[in-house]
Structure formats: C-alpha cells, structure tokens
C-alpha cells in the first residue's frame, strides 16, 4: 500500500479513452473521458469508487489535459504535460502519476518525461490497442495496472514506466512493433503483472529522471527543430541539405544496419555536421549503432531515431556543446 494519499491521473486522449458505435467502427480517440474509464473499471471490479481507492490505498484524482489522437502531440503539449506531472509530484500527498494517451507516439512522450522529470516517484504511462467499445478491449485492464504500479514502492527510482498487456516496460527502450496487435510493444521489458501484482526483474542503469541533466524551467515551446532522415538504397539525403542547414538545428539519421550509409549520404552528413549536430541511429529495432561511419558523428547507441530526436532537441534547448551532447548520448 502506498504511504501517501493520492494518485493523479492525467489524460491526453487516445484509444484507451476511445469509443465507437459498434466495436472499432468509427471510434474516436479520447471520446469517452477519463471519468467514464474509471467508472468502467469500478463496474468490472464490482467496486464503488471509494472501495477502489481503499484497495489501492490512495485517492484517485483525474485531470484531463487533452482529448486528442497521439499523432497531434507536439512539443507544446509535451511541455504542458511535463509541467502538470511536475506540479502533481511536488505535492507530498501524491505517491505517483498515471498518464493515459494513444499508442502511436507513446514511446516518445514517455521518453520525454523519462529525460525531464526530476522526481523519484513513479510515473506510469498506459494506453490501449482496442477502444472500450471493441470486443476484447484492453484499456480498462491496462488502466488498473497503471494505478497499481503508481502506488508500488518498487516503481520508484526506476524512470518512467509503461504498463501494457501485463508487461512492465522502460520508457528508454520500449518500441511499438505492431500496428494492431494487443502485444504491440516490445523491448524495455523489466517486469510483469502477476494476478494484478507487479513483479520487477530488472533495474535501469542509465541516467534518467531524478539524475537528468535537463531542466524543465529552461524550456519553452517550440523546441529546436530536429529532422529525422531515413536510410535506404539510393536515398536522396543530399536533396534536403540546403533546407536542413537553413531551417533545422539538428539531424538524426536512421542508418542502415549498425548505422551504415552510402558514400553519397556520408558526404552530405559530413557537410551537415560542420553546421549542425548529426546523430546516427539505426532503422533496425534491435542492437546498437557502431562502426566506422557512426563514429564520425554523435552515436545514438541503441536508442531509436524518434527518441534520439527528442534527446537532441532537449540538449540543443539547453545550449550544450557538441562534445557535451555526445557525452549525454553515451550516458542516457
């Protein structure tokens, strides 16, 4: 049981709060509201709201920040979310925060808070692959597990966590790997839920949350523009060089294999790196960046390209030097 008195649930929308007329047909993200989701959870458990809170050992406070598809989340909304989470966790009564949003960009939002929150308290993201009107919907169960994790002392000091499909995942490594399946998320596996009880297997070693080098107070929207370029046979990276130099503050290149690229792309990236930071990641979901090409630039390690973009944006917003940015990428 949580020693403190309150869980703050912050809703951004998404399928977990979606509902359609029949099943998945015509469902709208965020249509039902977090209050309705909480009521459905109580119905499924056969509990009144007060009884659910008694079981959790904490009062549930609901906050609706937005009701949108996660594709609409930008740096302004992310900063608004980060400030709402920070404000909630500064309250001594609050033992943890739950964030509900769509799955399509969940890995980016959770990583953003993983880098920016300075609290040791649990921050738990959850979502759903099927709306609540669908047969076999997963949202209510995922929400219940998120509430449980937010009250669990073992969730603390573990960075931002995601709970989906009975799995506990780290925001640093999690990736959505399937468009529709309930088990759409993989990597970053650090535990699981067993009969609604968290079972932790691993601790994250990299720098995060309360050891972060970043400060929310120094940030304002929009964050510096960082582009992601995708490597492929005969890619046309050079066609965008002038635009990138003129309008962007940094580039992430999702390279082939372990960060490889063609000779033509290498020349373009080398030219760009004289003006703006260039980070090499991989278009492959497993493994780390390495090799002669990658070592010419800042390497993303095993962080995905979308997450490398967020990390570079935050580093640029803090005016870190090229050397400092490279060091941060090695530590995160």
TrEMBL record:
> Sorted alphabetically, which InterPro entries does this protein's record hold?
AsnASE_II, Asp/glu_Ase-like_sf, Asparaginase/glutaminase-like, Asparaginase_C, L-asparaginase_C, L-asparaginase_N, L-asparaginase_N_sf
Alphabetized, the UniProt keywords read: Hydrolase
- Active site located where? 15
Q: Which domain of life is it from?
A: Bacteria
Under the heading PROSITE patterns, the entry gives:
ASN_GLN_ASE_3 (PS51732)
One Gene Ontology molecular-function label? asparaginase activity
What does the record list as GO biological process?
A: asparagine metabolic process
Membership in a protein family? Belongs to the asparaginase 1 family.
Name of this protein: Probable L-asparaginase
* Top-level taxonomy: Bacteria, Pseudomonadati, Campylobacterota, Epsilonproteobacteria, Campylobacterales
